[in-house]
Write a structure and sequence with these properties.
The structure holds two protein chains of two kinds.
Chain A (H helix, E strand, L loop, with lengths): L4 H12 L5 H14 L3 H17 L11 H9 L13 H8 L6 H18 L7 E3 L5 E4 L1 E2 L4 E6 L4 E8 L8 E9 L2 E8 L6 E8 L5 E8 L12 E4 L5
Chain B lengths: L4 H15 L3 H23 L2 H17 L11 H20 L2 H7 L13 H4 L4 H13 L3 H11 L5 H8 L3 H23 L1
The chains are: A alpha+beta, B mainly alpha.
Chain lengths: 239, 192
Protein backbone atom coordinates (compact mmCIF):
# COMPACT_ATOMS: atom_id res chain seq x y z
CA UNK A 1 0.00 0.00 0.00
CA UNK A 2 1.43 3.38 -0.91
CA UNK A 3 1.21 6.61 1.00
CA UNK A 4 -0.67 9.74 0.08
CA UNK A 5 1.37 12.74 -0.94
CA UNK A 6 1.04 14.47 2.43
CA UNK A 7 3.11 11.77 4.13
CA UNK A 8 5.56 11.66 1.23
CA UNK A 9 5.89 15.43 1.44
CA UNK A 10 6.59 15.14 5.16
CA UNK A 11 9.34 12.61 4.54
CA UNK A 12 10.83 14.55 1.65
CA UNK A 13 10.97 17.75 3.71
CA UNK A 14 13.12 15.99 6.30
CA UNK A 15 15.21 14.31 3.63
CA UNK A 16 16.01 17.63 1.96
CA UNK A 17 17.27 18.95 5.29
CA UNK A 18 19.37 15.84 5.88
CA UNK A 19 17.34 14.91 8.96
CA UNK A 20 15.54 11.78 7.82
CA UNK A 21 16.05 8.83 10.15
CA UNK A 22 17.14 5.53 8.63
CA UNK A 23 13.79 3.82 9.11
CA UNK A 24 11.92 6.67 7.47
CA UNK A 25 14.47 6.72 4.65
CA UNK A 26 13.85 3.08 3.85
CA UNK A 27 10.13 3.77 3.99
CA UNK A 28 10.47 6.72 1.61
CA UNK A 29 12.61 4.70 -0.79
CA UNK A 30 9.92 2.03 -0.96
CA UNK A 31 7.25 4.65 -1.56
CA UNK A 32 9.34 6.27 -4.26
CA UNK A 33 9.63 2.95 -6.02
CA UNK A 34 5.89 2.30 -5.63
CA UNK A 35 4.97 5.73 -6.99
CA UNK A 36 7.30 5.31 -9.96
CA UNK A 37 7.49 8.29 -12.31
CA UNK A 38 5.18 10.38 -10.14
CA UNK A 39 5.28 14.02 -11.23
CA UNK A 40 3.80 15.22 -7.94
CA UNK A 41 6.54 13.42 -6.01
CA UNK A 42 9.19 14.85 -8.34
CA UNK A 43 7.84 18.35 -7.92
CA UNK A 44 7.75 18.08 -4.11
CA UNK A 45 11.29 16.70 -3.99
CA UNK A 46 12.73 19.32 -6.33
CA UNK A 47 11.00 22.14 -4.47
CA UNK A 48 12.33 21.07 -1.09
CA UNK A 49 15.81 20.38 -2.44
CA UNK A 50 15.89 23.88 -3.87
CA UNK A 51 14.68 25.38 -0.61
CA UNK A 52 17.13 23.44 1.56
CA UNK A 53 20.02 24.17 -0.77
CA UNK A 54 19.53 27.87 -0.29
CA UNK A 55 19.49 27.75 3.51
CA UNK A 56 23.27 27.69 3.57
CA UNK A 57 23.37 31.20 2.18
CA UNK A 58 21.95 32.51 5.44
CA UNK A 59 25.40 32.05 6.95
CA UNK A 60 28.11 34.64 6.70
CA UNK A 61 30.63 33.51 4.07
CA UNK A 62 34.01 32.33 5.31
CA UNK A 63 37.29 33.39 3.74
CA UNK A 64 38.82 30.50 1.84
CA UNK A 65 42.23 29.74 0.46
CA UNK A 66 42.23 31.08 -3.09
CA UNK A 67 44.90 28.57 -4.08
CA UNK A 68 42.44 25.75 -3.57
CA UNK A 69 40.98 26.21 -7.03
CA UNK A 70 44.42 25.85 -8.58
CA UNK A 71 45.09 22.71 -6.58
CA UNK A 72 41.84 21.18 -7.80
CA UNK A 73 42.59 21.98 -11.41
CA UNK A 74 46.16 20.74 -11.05
CA UNK A 75 44.98 17.50 -9.47
CA UNK A 76 42.82 16.82 -12.49
CA UNK A 77 45.20 17.50 -15.29
CA UNK A 78 42.66 17.33 -18.07
CA UNK A 79 39.31 18.93 -18.80
CA UNK A 80 36.49 17.01 -17.12
CA UNK A 81 34.29 14.92 -19.34
CA UNK A 82 30.95 13.66 -18.11
CA UNK A 83 30.81 9.93 -17.46
CA UNK A 84 34.57 9.69 -17.79
CA UNK A 85 35.66 7.24 -15.14
CA UNK A 86 39.37 7.90 -15.32
CA UNK A 87 40.97 8.71 -11.99
CA UNK A 88 44.53 10.06 -12.00
CA UNK A 89 46.94 8.09 -9.87
CA UNK A 90 48.25 11.16 -8.01
CA UNK A 91 44.76 11.93 -6.87
CA UNK A 92 44.12 8.33 -6.01
CA UNK A 93 47.17 8.25 -3.81
CA UNK A 94 46.17 11.44 -2.06
CA UNK A 95 42.64 10.23 -1.48
CA UNK A 96 43.76 6.80 -0.43
CA UNK A 97 45.71 8.27 2.44
CA UNK A 98 42.80 10.29 3.72
CA UNK A 99 40.08 7.79 4.55
CA UNK A 100 41.25 4.54 5.98
CA UNK A 101 38.48 4.14 8.63
CA UNK A 102 35.67 1.73 8.21
CA UNK A 103 36.94 0.13 5.05
CA UNK A 104 39.55 -1.73 6.99
CA UNK A 105 36.66 -3.70 8.39
CA UNK A 106 35.18 -4.10 4.93
CA UNK A 107 38.42 -5.44 3.59
CA UNK A 108 38.71 -7.82 6.51
CA UNK A 109 35.12 -8.91 6.07
CA UNK A 110 35.52 -9.46 2.37
CA UNK A 111 37.24 -12.79 2.76
CA UNK A 112 34.49 -14.02 5.06
CA UNK A 113 31.86 -12.93 2.58
CA UNK A 114 33.66 -14.84 -0.14
CA UNK A 115 33.71 -17.99 1.92
CA UNK A 116 30.00 -17.63 2.63
CA UNK A 117 29.33 -17.04 -1.05
CA UNK A 118 31.03 -20.26 -1.97
CA UNK A 119 28.68 -22.10 0.32
CA UNK A 120 25.46 -20.34 -0.54
CA UNK A 121 25.83 -19.13 -4.11
CA UNK A 122 26.82 -22.18 -6.04
CA UNK A 123 26.54 -20.66 -9.53
CA UNK A 124 28.75 -17.80 -8.43
CA UNK A 125 31.52 -19.63 -6.68
CA UNK A 126 34.12 -19.38 -9.40
CA UNK A 127 35.95 -16.32 -8.17
CA UNK A 128 38.98 -16.20 -10.37
CA UNK A 129 39.32 -17.42 -13.89
CA UNK A 130 42.39 -17.26 -16.05
CA UNK A 131 41.27 -15.67 -19.32
CA UNK A 132 44.69 -15.75 -20.94
CA UNK A 133 48.09 -16.50 -19.52
CA UNK A 134 48.17 -13.06 -17.91
CA UNK A 135 44.58 -11.88 -17.62
CA UNK A 136 42.29 -12.54 -14.70
CA UNK A 137 38.51 -12.53 -14.42
CA UNK A 138 37.00 -12.04 -10.98
CA UNK A 139 33.33 -12.45 -10.06
CA UNK A 140 31.75 -10.22 -7.45
CA UNK A 141 29.50 -11.67 -4.78
CA UNK A 142 27.22 -10.05 -2.26
CA UNK A 143 23.70 -9.02 -1.47
CA UNK A 144 22.74 -7.44 -4.77
CA UNK A 145 20.89 -9.34 -7.44
CA UNK A 146 22.50 -9.88 -10.82
CA UNK A 147 26.07 -10.66 -11.71
CA UNK A 148 29.15 -8.49 -11.98
CA UNK A 149 32.64 -9.46 -13.06
CA UNK A 150 35.91 -7.67 -13.63
CA UNK A 151 38.73 -8.52 -16.02
CA UNK A 152 42.22 -7.14 -15.61
CA UNK A 153 45.87 -7.90 -16.08
CA UNK A 154 47.89 -7.86 -12.84
CA UNK A 155 50.48 -5.11 -12.91
CA UNK A 156 48.87 -3.27 -15.78
CA UNK A 157 46.60 -0.25 -15.71
CA UNK A 158 42.95 -0.70 -16.55
CA UNK A 159 40.11 -3.06 -15.79
CA UNK A 160 36.92 -3.95 -17.60
CA UNK A 161 33.68 -4.47 -15.71
CA UNK A 162 30.56 -6.07 -17.01
CA UNK A 163 27.39 -7.05 -15.29
CA UNK A 164 23.83 -8.04 -16.01
CA UNK A 165 20.56 -8.43 -14.16
CA UNK A 166 21.58 -5.64 -11.78
CA UNK A 167 18.76 -3.71 -10.10
CA UNK A 168 18.56 0.05 -10.59
CA UNK A 169 20.05 1.94 -7.65
CA UNK A 170 17.65 4.03 -5.57
CA UNK A 171 16.35 7.14 -7.33
CA UNK A 172 19.06 9.76 -7.47
CA UNK A 173 21.76 7.22 -6.68
CA UNK A 174 24.43 5.49 -8.74
CA UNK A 175 26.67 2.49 -8.23
CA UNK A 176 30.20 3.40 -7.24
CA UNK A 177 33.14 1.06 -7.68
CA UNK A 178 35.85 1.11 -5.02
CA UNK A 179 39.37 -0.20 -4.90
CA UNK A 180 40.40 -1.05 -1.35
CA UNK A 181 44.00 -1.27 -0.28
CA UNK A 182 45.02 -1.61 3.36
CA UNK A 183 41.54 -0.57 4.41
CA UNK A 184 41.54 2.66 2.38
CA UNK A 185 38.88 2.99 -0.32
CA UNK A 186 39.57 4.79 -3.56
CA UNK A 187 36.81 5.47 -6.05
CA UNK A 188 37.07 3.82 -9.42
CA UNK A 189 34.11 5.79 -10.72
CA UNK A 190 30.34 5.76 -10.80
CA UNK A 191 27.96 4.05 -13.15
CA UNK A 192 24.25 3.47 -13.61
CA UNK A 193 23.10 0.21 -15.22
CA UNK A 194 21.05 0.41 -18.39
CA UNK A 195 18.40 -2.28 -18.39
CA UNK A 196 20.39 -3.98 -15.66
CA UNK A 197 23.58 -4.06 -17.73
CA UNK A 198 26.93 -2.49 -16.88
CA UNK A 199 29.86 -2.46 -19.29
CA UNK A 200 32.68 -0.08 -18.58
CA UNK A 201 36.40 0.42 -18.50
CA UNK A 202 38.16 1.91 -15.47
CA UNK A 203 41.57 3.38 -16.16
CA UNK A 204 43.22 2.63 -12.84
CA UNK A 205 45.89 0.28 -11.59
CA UNK A 206 44.25 -2.63 -9.84
CA UNK A 207 47.60 -4.20 -9.07
CA UNK A 208 47.92 -3.26 -5.40
CA UNK A 209 44.22 -3.53 -4.54
CA UNK A 210 43.13 -6.08 -1.94
CA UNK A 211 39.41 -5.94 -2.54
CA UNK A 212 36.97 -4.46 -5.02
CA UNK A 213 33.61 -3.25 -3.76
CA UNK A 214 30.44 -1.72 -5.13
CA UNK A 215 28.17 0.56 -3.12
CA UNK A 216 25.09 2.60 -3.88
CA UNK A 217 25.93 6.28 -3.56
CA UNK A 218 24.51 9.72 -4.26
CA UNK A 219 24.76 10.85 -7.87
CA UNK A 220 27.54 13.30 -7.05
CA UNK A 221 29.81 10.28 -6.77
CA UNK A 222 31.39 10.89 -3.34
CA UNK A 223 35.11 10.46 -2.82
CA UNK A 224 34.58 8.21 0.19
CA UNK A 225 32.00 5.44 0.56
CA UNK A 226 28.94 6.29 2.61
CA UNK A 227 27.10 2.96 2.40
CA UNK A 228 27.82 -0.66 3.02
CA UNK A 229 29.08 -2.63 0.01
CA UNK A 230 26.53 -4.47 -2.10
CA UNK A 231 29.10 -6.51 -4.00
CA UNK A 232 32.65 -7.53 -3.19
CA UNK A 233 35.52 -9.21 -4.98
CA UNK A 234 38.55 -10.51 -3.10
CA UNK A 235 41.78 -10.06 -5.05
CA UNK A 236 44.17 -11.34 -2.42
CA UNK A 237 44.01 -14.87 -3.75
CA UNK A 238 45.12 -13.86 -7.21
CA UNK A 239 48.69 -14.63 -8.06
CA UNK B 1 12.53 38.02 -13.66
CA UNK B 2 13.12 37.44 -9.91
CA UNK B 3 16.06 38.89 -8.08
CA UNK B 4 17.72 35.51 -7.95
CA UNK B 5 17.12 34.59 -11.59
CA UNK B 6 19.89 36.69 -13.06
CA UNK B 7 22.68 35.06 -11.00
CA UNK B 8 21.16 31.70 -11.80
CA UNK B 9 21.36 32.41 -15.53
CA UNK B 10 25.01 33.29 -15.02
CA UNK B 11 25.56 30.08 -13.07
CA UNK B 12 24.03 27.97 -15.80
CA UNK B 13 26.25 29.65 -18.32
CA UNK B 14 29.25 28.82 -16.13
CA UNK B 15 28.12 25.20 -15.91
CA UNK B 16 27.69 25.00 -19.69
CA UNK B 17 31.24 26.29 -20.16
CA UNK B 18 32.51 24.01 -17.45
CA UNK B 19 31.21 21.02 -19.39
CA UNK B 20 33.58 22.10 -22.14
CA UNK B 21 36.48 22.06 -19.68
CA UNK B 22 36.64 25.85 -19.29
CA UNK B 23 38.95 26.57 -16.35
CA UNK B 24 37.85 30.18 -16.09
CA UNK B 25 34.26 29.06 -15.68
CA UNK B 26 35.34 26.75 -12.89
CA UNK B 27 37.24 29.55 -11.21
CA UNK B 28 34.19 31.77 -11.52
CA UNK B 29 32.00 29.18 -9.86
CA UNK B 30 34.60 28.63 -7.15
CA UNK B 31 34.97 32.30 -6.24
CA UNK B 32 31.22 32.69 -6.25
CA UNK B 33 30.34 29.81 -3.96
CA UNK B 34 33.40 28.64 -2.07
CA UNK B 35 33.04 31.18 0.81
CA UNK B 36 29.39 30.28 1.38
CA UNK B 37 30.13 26.59 0.98
CA UNK B 38 32.88 26.80 3.59
CA UNK B 39 30.57 28.65 5.98
CA UNK B 40 27.97 25.90 5.62
CA UNK B 41 30.45 23.07 6.02
CA UNK B 42 32.12 24.75 8.99
CA UNK B 43 28.80 25.33 10.70
CA UNK B 44 28.08 21.61 10.48
CA UNK B 45 31.49 20.05 11.14
CA UNK B 46 32.70 22.86 13.43
CA UNK B 47 36.28 22.63 12.24
CA UNK B 48 37.77 24.91 9.63
CA UNK B 49 40.21 22.42 8.13
CA UNK B 50 37.50 19.78 7.74
CA UNK B 51 35.22 22.36 6.19
CA UNK B 52 37.89 23.25 3.65
CA UNK B 53 38.38 19.59 2.84
CA UNK B 54 34.66 19.18 2.22
CA UNK B 55 34.56 22.25 -0.01
CA UNK B 56 37.55 20.98 -1.95
CA UNK B 57 35.95 17.57 -2.45
CA UNK B 58 32.69 19.14 -3.59
CA UNK B 59 34.42 21.38 -6.12
CA UNK B 60 36.55 18.45 -7.22
CA UNK B 61 33.34 16.54 -7.95
CA UNK B 62 31.99 19.47 -9.97
CA UNK B 63 35.22 19.85 -11.90
CA UNK B 64 35.40 16.16 -12.69
CA UNK B 65 31.78 15.69 -13.64
CA UNK B 66 29.85 18.89 -14.34
CA UNK B 67 27.35 16.75 -16.23
CA UNK B 68 26.05 15.56 -12.86
CA UNK B 69 24.13 18.83 -12.61
CA UNK B 70 20.63 18.46 -13.98
CA UNK B 71 19.15 21.85 -14.79
CA UNK B 72 15.66 20.37 -14.69
CA UNK B 73 15.94 19.67 -10.99
CA UNK B 74 16.81 23.09 -9.63
CA UNK B 75 19.32 25.90 -9.43
CA UNK B 76 23.07 25.51 -9.57
CA UNK B 77 23.49 27.17 -6.18
CA UNK B 78 21.07 24.80 -4.44
CA UNK B 79 22.56 21.78 -6.14
CA UNK B 80 26.07 22.71 -5.13
CA UNK B 81 25.22 23.70 -1.57
CA UNK B 82 23.24 20.47 -1.31
CA UNK B 83 26.39 18.54 -2.20
CA UNK B 84 28.38 20.39 0.44
CA UNK B 85 25.67 19.85 3.03
CA UNK B 86 25.40 16.16 2.23
CA UNK B 87 29.14 15.65 2.61
CA UNK B 88 29.34 17.65 5.83
CA UNK B 89 26.44 15.84 7.49
CA UNK B 90 27.81 12.54 6.29
CA UNK B 91 31.20 13.31 7.79
CA UNK B 92 29.71 14.30 11.12
CA UNK B 93 27.62 11.15 11.35
CA UNK B 94 30.41 8.88 10.22
CA UNK B 95 32.84 10.11 12.75
CA UNK B 96 30.23 10.07 15.51
CA UNK B 97 32.01 12.95 17.15
CA UNK B 98 29.36 15.54 16.62
CA UNK B 99 28.21 15.60 20.22
CA UNK B 100 31.67 16.37 21.50
CA UNK B 101 32.25 19.10 18.96
CA UNK B 102 28.83 20.63 19.48
CA UNK B 103 29.37 20.77 23.21
CA UNK B 104 32.85 22.21 22.83
CA UNK B 105 31.84 24.87 20.36
CA UNK B 106 29.43 27.71 20.76
CA UNK B 107 27.12 27.68 17.75
CA UNK B 108 26.85 30.94 15.93
CA UNK B 109 23.39 32.44 15.93
CA UNK B 110 22.53 33.61 12.47
CA UNK B 111 21.51 37.07 13.62
CA UNK B 112 24.67 37.50 15.70
CA UNK B 113 27.11 36.88 12.90
CA UNK B 114 29.26 39.68 11.69
CA UNK B 115 29.41 40.11 7.97
CA UNK B 116 33.20 40.36 7.84
CA UNK B 117 33.28 38.60 4.50
CA UNK B 118 30.76 40.86 2.81
CA UNK B 119 33.51 42.82 1.13
CA UNK B 120 34.79 39.64 -0.46
CA UNK B 121 31.51 38.68 -2.05
CA UNK B 122 29.53 41.92 -2.28
CA UNK B 123 30.32 42.44 -5.92
CA UNK B 124 29.15 38.93 -6.73
CA UNK B 125 25.64 39.48 -5.47
CA UNK B 126 25.65 36.91 -2.67
CA UNK B 127 24.78 39.39 0.09
CA UNK B 128 21.47 39.79 -1.72
CA UNK B 129 20.95 36.03 -1.63
CA UNK B 130 21.80 36.04 2.06
CA UNK B 131 19.33 38.84 2.71
CA UNK B 132 16.61 36.90 0.91
CA UNK B 133 17.23 33.65 2.78
CA UNK B 134 17.53 35.36 6.16
CA UNK B 135 14.34 37.29 5.55
CA UNK B 136 12.50 34.09 4.72
CA UNK B 137 13.92 32.39 7.82
CA UNK B 138 12.90 35.33 9.99
CA UNK B 139 9.34 34.92 8.84
CA UNK B 140 9.13 31.40 10.26
CA UNK B 141 7.54 30.79 13.65
CA UNK B 142 10.42 30.26 16.12
CA UNK B 143 9.55 26.62 16.78
CA UNK B 144 9.64 25.79 13.07
CA UNK B 145 12.79 27.77 12.47
CA UNK B 146 14.50 26.01 15.36
CA UNK B 147 13.73 22.57 13.96
CA UNK B 148 14.94 23.52 10.50
CA UNK B 149 18.16 24.99 11.86
CA UNK B 150 18.91 22.05 14.11
CA UNK B 151 18.38 19.67 11.24
CA UNK B 152 20.17 21.58 8.50
CA UNK B 153 22.92 23.45 10.33
CA UNK B 154 23.57 21.10 13.22
CA UNK B 155 23.18 17.88 11.24
CA UNK B 156 20.65 16.36 13.63
CA UNK B 157 18.08 13.82 12.57
CA UNK B 158 14.44 14.21 13.50
CA UNK B 159 14.68 11.59 16.23
CA UNK B 160 17.80 13.27 17.66
CA UNK B 161 15.97 16.59 17.81
CA UNK B 162 13.03 14.94 19.54
CA UNK B 163 15.37 13.30 22.02
CA UNK B 164 17.30 16.46 22.80
CA UNK B 165 14.38 18.84 23.04
CA UNK B 166 11.81 16.51 24.53
CA UNK B 167 9.39 17.39 21.76
CA UNK B 168 7.38 14.41 20.48
CA UNK B 169 8.79 13.00 17.23
CA UNK B 170 5.48 13.56 15.48
CA UNK B 171 5.61 17.23 16.40
CA UNK B 172 9.17 17.51 15.07
CA UNK B 173 7.99 15.98 11.80
CA UNK B 174 5.01 18.28 11.44
CA UNK B 175 7.12 21.34 12.28
CA UNK B 176 9.66 20.24 9.68
CA UNK B 177 7.01 20.03 6.99
CA UNK B 178 5.28 23.26 7.94
CA UNK B 179 8.60 25.07 8.20
CA UNK B 180 9.78 23.84 4.82
CA UNK B 181 6.52 24.72 3.15
CA UNK B 182 6.64 28.18 4.64
CA UNK B 183 10.31 28.62 3.79
CA UNK B 184 9.67 27.61 0.20
CA UNK B 185 6.83 30.05 -0.26
CA UNK B 186 8.71 32.67 1.76
CA UNK B 187 11.68 32.53 -0.58
CA UNK B 188 9.36 32.95 -3.53
CA UNK B 189 7.61 35.91 -1.92
CA UNK B 190 10.78 37.72 -0.91
CA UNK B 191 12.08 37.43 -4.45
CA UNK B 192 9.01 39.05 -5.96
Amino acid sequence: MTLDHYRIEELMAAEALGGLDDGDRAFLDRERAAHGACTTCGSIEAGFAETAGRLGFALTPEPIDDDMVDRIIAATARPPVAADLETPRDELSARRSRRPWAWAAVAAAAAAVMVLAVVTLTPRTTQVTEATSSQRVVAFTGTSEGTLAMAFTPGETGAVFWGSGLPDPSPGDVYEIWMIEDGAAVSGGCVTPVDGVIALHVDANIGTTDTMAVTSEAADCPTAPTNEPLLLADLTTIV
Amino acid sequence: MGVADQPEARDRDLMARLRQGDEDAFRGLFHRYAPSAKALAKRIVRQSHLAEEIVQEAFMAVWRDPGAYDGERGSVRSWFMGMVHHRAVDLVRREEAHHRRAEAAIPEALEEQTDHADDVVRQLGLPEERRIVRAALDELPPEQRQVLEQMYFDGLSQSQIAERTGIPLGTVKSRTLLGMRRMRSGLQEVER
